[in-house]
Write a structure and sequence with these properties.
- Its EC number is 3.6.1.41.
- The chain has a single domain (about 5-270), classed as Metallo-dependent phosphatases (Purple Acid Phosphatase, chain A, domain 2), CATH 3.60.21.
- The protein is globular, with a radius of gyration of 17 Å.
- Helix content is about 30%, strand content about 15%.
- It has helices at about 15-20, 45-55, 65-75, 85-90, 95-100, 130-145, 145-150, 170-180; strands at about 5, 30-35, 60, 110, 115, 185, 190, 205, 220-225, 240, 250-260, 260-270.
- With about 270 residues, it is an alpha/beta fold.
- Strands 3-2-1-11-12 form a five-stranded mixed β-sheet, covered by helices on one side.
- α6 crosses α8 (about 170-180).
- It has eight helices and twelve strands.
């Protein structure tokens, strides 16, 4: 049995199938981890969702910001200029695919491998246990009757810069932003939601995984996507960044995850 992880697919179905063929992926014995942003901007979001859904338990997919945006559109929210999601929304099996998507996690952890997967990142102050609790509260919301109201709040929302106190209505929104959107933050937990490419102008900002004191680091290594501008992150002892910008004309990258936080890049496809 092999556990593979792939970065942001974003509807690049052809490249995904090429990668899996290269490594001889067998859903009977192998598992594919997908680090979110399964859909949007690429040409084949519908094929991608149908394929991943067909893999059953052999595909472990966490939600990314583009996946949440699809849920938002179905819930009646607004679109963006570069969206390529009409094929999903107009598909005869749209309701089934949306139901499947709503039941994907925001965080996945394998204690035997010592690997955790999220789309964007984690708060430096969160232990793995705390991160799981934050993710689970969002998952319960998405799987419940109020999921549409929650998803509509994500459009053009000004997310809190710091984690709100327990009981604050914005606490789930903040956790969602951390798990699906974070790039930069300060060591004391102030998040920069504005810088999407290039370096932050705030000298206190660091990539979320680059601070000296990180609570979750003793619990797991983290595989993530989301940050195409940074590309593959292979030089950190406790994270593996796999968004290599396939939807922007670069490559889709597949890694094999090994126990104790070890990994190997095994295939790439343009």
């Amino acid at each position: 049995m092999a556990t593979y992880a792939v970065g942001d697919i974003q509807g690049c179905y052809k490249q995904l199938r090429v990668l899996l063929k290269k490594v001889g992926f067998d859903p009977v014995k192998d598992v594919l981890w997908c680090a979110g942003d399964l859909v949007n901007r690429g040409p084949d979001s519908l094929k991608t969702l149908r394929f991943l859904k067909s893999l059953g338990d052999s595909a472990v997919c966490v939600l990314g910001n583009h996946d949440l945006h699809l849920l938002e559109l179905v819930a009646g929210g607004g679109s963006y200029r570069r969206d390529t999601l009409d094929q999903v929304i107009n598909a005869p099996d749209c309701a089934e695919l949306i139901d499947w998507l709503r039941h994907r996690p925001l965080l996945h952890h394998d204690s035997e491998l010592h690997w955790c997967m999220v789309h964007a990142g984690l708060h430096p102050d969160w232990t793995l246990k705390k991160a799981k609790k934050r993710a689970r509260k969002i998952e319960v919301m998405l799987q419940g009757d109020e999921w549409q109201d929650f998803c509509r709040q994500l459009h053009h929302r000004q997310f809190p810069r710091r984690e709100p106190k327990k009981g604050c209505p914005d606490r789930r929104l903040f956790s969602t932003a951390v798990l699906t959107r974070v790039r930069y933050c300060t060591s004391d937990g102030r998040f920069n939601w504005d810088t999407r490419s290039g370096e932050s102008r705030d000298t206190r900002d660091r990539p979320w995984f680059a601070h000296k004191r990180i609570a979750w680091k003793r619990d797991c290594s983290v595989v993530y996507g989301h940050w195409a501008a940074m590309g593959l992150v292979k030089d950190q002892p406790h994270v593996l960044g796999l968004d290599s910008g396939c939807v922007w004309g670069e490559e889709l990258t597949l890694a094999r995850l090994k126990p104790r936080g070890k990994w190997a890049i095994v295939a790439q496809a343009e």
